Each structure stands twice: as structure tokens, then as C-alpha cells.
Amino acid sequence: MAISKILLYYRFTPITDPTAVMLWQRTLCESLGLTGRILISRHGINGTVGGELPSVKRYIRATRAYPGFRDMEFKFSEGSAADFPRLSVKVREELVAFGVPGDIDVDDDGVVGGGVHLKPEEVNELVDTRGDEVVFFDGRNAMEAGIGRFRDAVVPDVETTHDFIDEIESGKYDDLKDRPVVTYCTGGVRCEVLSALLRKRGFREVYQIDGGIVRYGETYGNDGLWEGSLYVFDRRMHMEFGDATDHNFVQIGRCIHCTEGTNTYRNCANGQCRRQVLICDGCAGTEAGSYCTGCRSTVSVDA
Ligand SMILES: [Zn+2]
Ligand SMILES: [Zn+2]
């Protein structure tokens, strides 16, 4: 059996007819037997597809034939196409759902007015030269930041990407407007937009990390400015960039019941609750410990 591969990619580029691109991409994936999820908007494309290696390679060649996608970077990821049982190719108003499609302009070079791209080494250089003045600003939701983040990062109080605009405009972060702000997210796509939105709102010196946390973590493992685990949106739930038992590994996630270190989000045992919470192995093994704190107080269980 052929090796199965997962491909991650995005590109911000003007697309005049997103529906035509969507139909072309859907047909292309179907003909190659690829599964996964692709979003197209008038601002570009963002996709995760999986399939057998020769098909994936053919997909890259065909997709790069579209002029706007010629320079798109494709990243191979661990995992297999079995993680994506279906194919979904859709047109959306925004590639990243900040809820402000009219606020973003895109040209052939990408998002207009975005933050300066830094390679992982340049992130460390910035911190070396500017010291504590530098602020890391988490571009992800609170749940993702709950198990890993950059050292001393500002973690906005957001449940979804949609909450960012209100949070930024609340005034809470106005004291950061004159400091060097480094935005970061999993693979970089959210920060392409977030960094531009911050600059539009008066943040004067904004940076973003090339390839996001993934590339930074691959470069520095446990020896850089990243601490803890990376939340990932597949069955693995989280990943580490070095040995999690190594003395350099900083455990960020804490069990909601006993504060024991853990990286594991679990579904609350109440089927109606749908909350995912950090619960350590020990607590998860008890009936009371298998609920979120809210549900635990309402169910009668033998402790
Ligand atoms: Zn616990
Ligand atoms: Zn619950």
C-alpha cells in the first residue's frame, strides 16, 4: 500500500472568482482520491488534504499551475489521510473567521499591511536585542493557549477567533501599542490577518513568525522561548517539540481538579456539556474527576 501523507498550505492572493476555484479544486481532489478540508475566499486559499504520496505530489503540481498559487509553500505533516474521512471544499467570506472580511486587503504579495515576518532565529534575535520590551501575543483561543505558549505571552481572553476584535478594541492592550508585539499561531495563517488587524488599530511595531509555532518548535525544541505543548486539530490533540520528560520541558497545562500537570483535554463526562477540559490521568480515573467543574457540582457522584 502506498504511503499516505497530509499536506498543509495557505496563500493570501486576490481571487476574483472563488466559486470557479472551489469547483476546480473539488474536481482535482476527487480525481486524485484526496480527502480533507479546503477553504477559498476572495483573499486566497487555506487547505489541509491527505492522500497517497503520488496523488499528493500531483495535487501540488496542478495547484501551482494557478498563477496566484505559484509560490505557495506546501508543508507535509505527520498523520494520515485516515484522519480526514471526507472531502470538503467551500467558499467563505474569510479564510480566518475574525468576522471582519471588509477590513482585509490582499494583493499579489499577500495581506496588505501585515506584521513583519520573522524566521525563528530572528524571533530570538529580537528578544536578545530588545529584551523585556518584546511582547508575545497569542493569536489562538484560550483552550489552545492552555497547554502551551511563548514565555510570558499575553493570552487574550477569547473562546474563538471571532472574539478577537472586541478583545483588541476593549482598550486592555493599549499599553502594548508602542512595544514590539510578536503575534503567533499554529502554522501562521491566523497571524497573517491578526497582525494586519492590530496594525490598523494602532499597534505600531507588529511581527509574525514565519511558519508559526510549528516552525519555531521544529527549530528550537525545548531550548527556545516556546513553553509546553502545541494544541493540534486532529486525533493527537497535542504534540511536543522535544521530550516531554526532559528537564527543559515546561509543563503549562494543569488539571482543573488537582492542578497536576497534564496536556490532555478530555470531554466532560456529561454528554450534554460538550466542554473539553484539562483532566489528569489520576482524576480521569475517578467518577467525580471525569466531569468539568461546573457539571461536577451538579451531579451526585460517589467521590
Ligand atoms: Zn487531577
Ligand atoms: Zn461539563
From TrEMBL:
SUPFAM superfamilies linked to this entry:
Rhodanese/Cell cycle control phosphatase
PROSITE patterns reported in the protein's UniProt record: RHODANESE_3 (PS50206)
The Swiss-Prot or TrEMBL record annotates one GO molecular function as: oxidoreductase activity, acting on paired donors, with incorporation or reduction of molecular oxygen
Family indicated by similarity? Belongs to the TrhO family.
Q: Which InterPro entries match?
A: Rhodanese-like_dom, Rhodanese-like_dom_sf, Rhodanese_C, TrhO, TRHO_N
Signal peptide positions (record):
none
One Pfam family, short name: Rhodanese_C
Encoding gene per record: trhO
Which protein is depicted? tRNA uridine(34) hydroxylase
Q: What's the source species for this entry?
A: Corynebacterium pygosceleis
Could you tell me which residue ranges the Rhodanese domain spans? 130-225
What domain of life does the native source organism fall in? Answer: Bacteria
Q: Which reaction does it catalyse?
A: uridine(34) in tRNA + AH2 + O2 = 5-hydroxyuridine(34) in tRNA + A + H2O
**Protein EC:** 1.14.-.-
Gene Ontology annotations of biological process type: tRNA modification
Function per UniProt: Catalyzes oxygen-dependent 5-hydroxyuridine (ho5U) modification at position 34 in tRNAs.
For this UniProt record, the keywords arranged alphabetically read as follows: Oxidoreductase, tRNA processing
